């Protein structure tokens, strides 16, 4: 039987839809390979300084770290973030060593607090340790270490004994210049727990 009419509508629809698909894929590929601007390429460092406070993992003592920056920002268990400083973990001795998950218990077998300084503010920083809760009769040796991250180097390591609940000692003070270099370290004592209570 001979056709009474002739039309190419289906073919034109298919051709037009294919063209739209190719244009869409080309546009998507262009976006994905577009180079990033200089502003987007800049990556901020995650840390300039790290302060590590650690003590005997077999002791159930709660030692707290207090760090004050040149602008008076103070980081401790009461305020875990202030200015450019962050307390990454408030170690409570045995009390927060075990984390329960759906797959079982995970045990963190270290007594350690870490304070991260994520930018450079020129001036003096003060690092104190405080015995929040003492459970042992013997003194607790607390190790305090300051690491510079860019480039990496250990600036100072110190060990201090805390004897009783409430004992607070200045581990060290360090002065940073505008370029991020540590230009002075001293051990002049200053209480930071009183400043934290006053907040």
Lay out the secondary structure.
Elements lengths: L8 H25 L4 H4 L7 E7 L6 E7 L5 E2 L5 E2 L2 E3 L10 E4 L2 E4 L3 E7 L5 E11 L6 E10 L2 E11 L5 E9 L5 E5 L6 H6 L1
Antiparallel strand pairs: 1-8, 1-10, 2-3, 2-9, 4-5, 5-8, 6-7, 9-12, 10-11, 12-13
Q: What does this molecule look like?
A:
The chain has helices spanning 9-33, 38-41, 193-198; strands at 49-55, 62-68, 74-75, 81-82, 85-87, 98-101, 104-107, 111-117, 123-133, 140-149, 152-162, 168-176, 182-186. The chain has two domains: 9-34; 49-198, Lipoxygenase-1 (Sandwich), CATH 2.60.60. Strands 4-5-8-1-10-11 form a six-stranded antiparallel beta sheet, with no helix packed on it. A five-stranded antiparallel beta sheet has the order 3-2-9-12-13. Helix content is 18%, strand content 41%. The chain is elongated. It is an alpha+beta fold and 199 residues long.
Q: What is the radius of gyration?
A: 29 Å
Largest sheet: 6 strands, antiparallel
Report the total helices: 3
**Helix/strand class:** alpha+beta
- The CATH superfamily title of the largest domain: sav2460 like domains
Question: What is the strand arrangement across the widest sheet?
Answer: 4-5-8-1-10-11
Low-confidence stretches: none
Question: What key phrases describe this protein's structure?
Answer:
about 200 residues, alpha+beta, Lipoxygenase-1, 2 domains, six-stranded antiparallel β-sheet, 3 helices
């Amino acid at each position: 039987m001979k056709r009474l009419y002739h039309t190419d509508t289906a073919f034109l629809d298919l051709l037009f839809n294919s063209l739209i698909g190719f244009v869409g894929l080309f546009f998507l590929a262009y976006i994905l390979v577009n180079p990033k601007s200089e502003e987007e390429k800049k990556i901020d460092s995650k840390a300039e300084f790290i302060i590590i406070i650690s003590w005997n993992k077999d002791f159930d003592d709660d030692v707290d770290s207090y760090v004050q920056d040149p602008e008076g920002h103070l980081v401790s268990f009461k305020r875990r973030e202030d200015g450019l400083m962050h307390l990454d973990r408030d170690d409570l001795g045995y009390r927060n060593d075990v984390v329960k998950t759906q797959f079982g218990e995970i045990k963190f077998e270290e007594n350690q607090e870490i304070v991260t300084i994520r930018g450079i503010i020129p001036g003096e920083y003060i690092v104190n340790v405080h015995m929040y809760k003492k459970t042992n009769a013997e003194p607790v040796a607390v190790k305090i270490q300051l690491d510079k991250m860019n480039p990496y180097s250990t600036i100072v390591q110190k060990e201090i004994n805390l004897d009783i609940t409430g004992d607070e000692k200045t581990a060290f003070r360090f002065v940073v210049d505008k370029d991020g270099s540590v230009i002075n370290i001293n051990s002049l004592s200053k209480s930071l727990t009183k400043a934290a209570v006053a907040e």
